[in-house]
Amino acid sequence: MSKELLKGNIAMAEAAVRAGVEAYFGYPITPQTELLEWMSERLPALGRTFLQAESEVAAINMLYGAACTGARVMISSSSPGISLMMEGLSYIAGTEVPVVLIDVMRGGPGLGNIAPSQGDYNQIVHGGGHGDYHPIVLAPSSVQEAIDLTVLAFDLAEKYRSIVFVVADGNIGQMMEPAELPPMRPVRTEYPDWAVRGSMGQARHFLSSIYIEPKDEEVANYRMMQVWKRVQENEIRYQEYYLDDAEITVVGFGTAGRIALSAVRNARLQGVKAGLFRPISLNPFPIDELEKISQHTKKLLVVEMNTGQMLNDVQRAVKGKIPIDFYARLGGIVPFPDEILAEILRINQEEIPLEGDPRQRWMKRFAPVINWKN
Amino acid sequence: MVTTATPVQVVYKRPTSLSDIPTHYCPGCTHGIAHRLIAEVMDEMNIRDKTIGVAPVGCSVFAYNYFTCDFVEAAHGRAPAMATGIKRVLPDRVVFTYQGDGDMASIGMSEIIHAAGRGENLTVIFINNAIYGMTGGQMAPTTLPGQKTTSSPNGRDVETMGFPMKMAELLSQLDGAGYVVRRSLHDPKNIRMAKKAIRLAFETQVHGLGFSMVELLSTCNTNWGISVLESIQWLEDHMIPAYPIGDYKVSPAVANLKV
Lengths: 374, 259
Known about the structure:
The complex is a heterodimer. By secondary structure, chain A is of the alpha/beta class. Chain A has helices at about 10-20, 35-45, 55-70, 80-85, 85-95, 120-125, 145-160, 170-175, 215-235, 255-270, 285-295, 310-320, 335-350, 360-365; strands at about 5, 25, 50, 75, 100-105, 135-140, 165-170, 175-180, 205, 240, 250, 275-280, 280-285, 300-305, 325-330. Chain A folds into 2 domains: about 5-235, Thiamin diphosphate (ThDP)-binding fold, Pyr/PP domains (Rossmann fold, 3-Layer(aba) Sandwich); about 240-370, Rossmann fold (3-Layer(aba) Sandwich). Chain A is built from 14 helices and 15 strands. In chain A, the strands form 3 sheets. A 7-stranded mixed β-sheet of chain A has the order 3-2-4-5-7-6-13, with helices on both faces. The longest helix of chain A has 21 residues, at about 215-235. Helix content of chain B is about 35%, strand content about 15%. Chain B is built from 10 helices and 7 strands. Chain B is globular.
């Protein structure tokens, strides 16, 4: 295989095709529609299932049905569509069937806009649907990583019978850059024991999220936590840049992390010992790794394209041991590397208090940027 | 005295597609009849082994307990979408949903219309008893004008609560529908007609002739607040005039099926 110039949405779609996806269901929504369009051409040509549903509500329930057959299945959408899928997702979680979802996040809340955002972090990482469940959440910062994580998502989904999200933002979905696609895997011909495919002379199968006796639901919830414990032990993913001697560590995921890397490199050129920690698995979150970093770096700067949703998880890891500052652009605005660089340089000069809310301090600094008048 | 041995002949038995367990339905409820008819059809067509049922939310949420075929349990109203997902991946299996009036005609209206519109090769058994049973007798989309329920205590006022949804009539308008009929479960003659319709609905699917739906007028004596006998009479007196029994869509291809 060689590198090609690929658009993120199409790269993720083709990666799924090559990972052996058997069925895709979706509904058009910007900025992920190219993914659906790609699937509409590729999957029928390969004799696999593509269906444009009447809504995201229907699409997620089609996915649920197809997942119950043990087939490799995927769905994609963008923020408002993902909100509509939360009911079905909760049922999928409760039934413990593997599915892959791609969320190409856009500005919100509400109809918002179609520009890149990271505003769905809490909804996806910390729940969204009702009840107790934990999806695996992976965040790419390049087209290549989007390809690799999409393939990984299918393997993890099946290994843990889990929901796996790939959370890209409009930037990753719409951007074109050179990347290499994986070789085509054959579609599998054997299905797991739990799959509902008609009894075909064997024992009857039944799949459901219903546990009408609370004592049974309690056991089911406990079992799911046992699975989640294994995920936490084995599936933490992150990337470190220039952290060996970093005094200021920037923490950012996805597009924000990628832009922060440019800022970190520029800071290095100016003699500032900056580094970057980029969580790839947002769930499970690399808590222990961040805690270790907080033991040998002096200050943290969390950069996000939301109002500090991951910041809470970083604070949980750092436990108030070192000061944290926060920087964000909101509502579909992508930060420039220079904005983050300015923050790194400021932090390098200023003392940051250990106490107080980094978000509140950022709001004060940020007000002039949007000409906010009190 | 001379005794002659008469050969023993089984004339009535439990279908193998029907589980041998106690029912959770109220005494007098017609869900059990509907279940049995489906199981008899599965037996007769010898399709139990390749049939996947999709249970709804409502009184028949536990429908999966009563059939010996594979089953899944859908979210409220989403059974046609879930069934679509299964059928599209496994087109040679037989997939049916079993849905009540709240499930299908209220919260699941979008999913059922589009499944029919796409001509999904699914069979839908629709239980219309004009009330929400599981939650204790609230107004359903099929509740009749003037009918008292726990959420329309003075009777359904069409000025404020709208009119009943006529699902067989609605779905029959769609080109994707191959077989859409309404039957009733209130007496033996109608029950036999209902069984024939269920058979033809499954045959429609097996022959790939599009969407099929059998609406079954049913009783809910518990939530109607009357006796079993009165509920049968009420169905005949009030539901059949509002929901006429009949064939609403039989595509030419289905009409030509020899069963």
